[in-house]
Design goal:
Number of strands: 20
Oligomer: single chain
Helix content: 25-40%
Largest sheet: 6 strands, antiparallel
CATH class of the largest domain: Alpha Beta
Structural class: alpha+beta
CATH topology of the largest domain: Beta-lactamase
Amino acid sequence: MQQKYSITVLSLFLSVQIFAQFSEKINGAWQRFVSDPQMKYAMASILIVDASSGSTIFSKNEHVGLAPASTLKVVTAATALEMFGPSYRFVTQVGYKGTIQNGVLNGNIILEASGDPTLGSWRYASTKNFAQLGELAGMLEKAGIRKMEGQWIVNESGYSSQATPGGWPFDDMGNYYGAGAAGFNWYENQYDLILNPGTAEGKPVKIARTEPVPDAVDLRNELKTGPAGSGDRAIIYPDLWPNGTVRGTVPAGVKEFTISGSIAEPADYFFRTARNASLFGVKSEPFNGLQGQRSFSFESSGSKPLGQWTSPGLDSIVYFFLQKSVNLYGEALAKHIGKDGKEPAGTEKGVKRIREFWKARGIDDASLHMYDGSGLSPSNRVTARALVQVMQYARTRDWFGAFYEGLPTINGLKMKSGSITGVRAYTGYISSGGKTYSFAFIVNNFDGSSSSIMQKMFTVLNTLK
């Protein structure tokens, strides 16, 4: 008995010694980090916990609310997985009103918006290459509709007409990563702008075309040619021109240069795509000369079904949401979380319900000030403690596999990154020496380059490896 007691005491002593050495190591790394000139006027917060016990390993400013950038996506993703389940699918119903006589539909074709952010997306086998246009043509053929006298109507009556959250920076909204989530989305509400730079710096830049849909937008072009190798310094602004103005520079020395922008009217984008369906190998007479409208008050009762579009599973959506940091997905999921069938689904109601969800699970809603579902808004304020609580909760759920699979591997660690102007953040898991740690690390208002502060943050996190 005395021998067993001695071994237990010795093991406890060694554990305390190892923990003390570990704490000293990470504290030293932290002190060097916050003493760096880049951090002179910055604020940083960090929390690391033992994932098994939940006990704190290291913390600094864990209760200070900071802008989390895209690390906020783990909150939206975990909420959606818990509320809907990883196998959940969006369903967009297709129907018609009117009569079919001799192959002619005298009436309207109706697409019931479901908030699905994947319609027409290039990321999934079931949606890429506009496969859903072929499905739609098949529905019409099966119903005997060869021509139509009427309109195509996208019914978005269950959704707010405001696609982008309030507070998003003006500089972001015209670009692909600033695409807002409508009730009906198409090709992730973005397009590619193919540019022909000039032969020398300062020369005008020509807009060659848009892809995949021709003439997707009408932009005022104020682009100039920059130095060779200068990269993408172009921004699309959503100002008073029909679809915005493109300003800045793209590099000389290349025949074509591509940037990507956001579409403000995705329903109209779908109509344009359908009218050009033959370019994508889909032929359907009702697509020719297609006339359509987007409605927020259409009464679709009494319509007859033609078929439906079904999205990939939520686990697949979450995978790309986290891996590729698709802001559109975050906003679509936030709106869907807030959808109650009573009032139009919008961002404000969605984030309110997300905060209520986590409050019921022990996270103080004052530590989770959200203004969107993606983290693009600089107004978001979240604590490191709140992020770690979400990461810890996720580990206990049966959908954790889908959540974990979606987290990118960065610097050898499984974690979600976040970056907007003046913000760099990470949250995730570190497995080392038979132990797993959950962590969140946020820095706001640093000086200098984002890539430099990123490497210095990695140095702190590497002490856990």
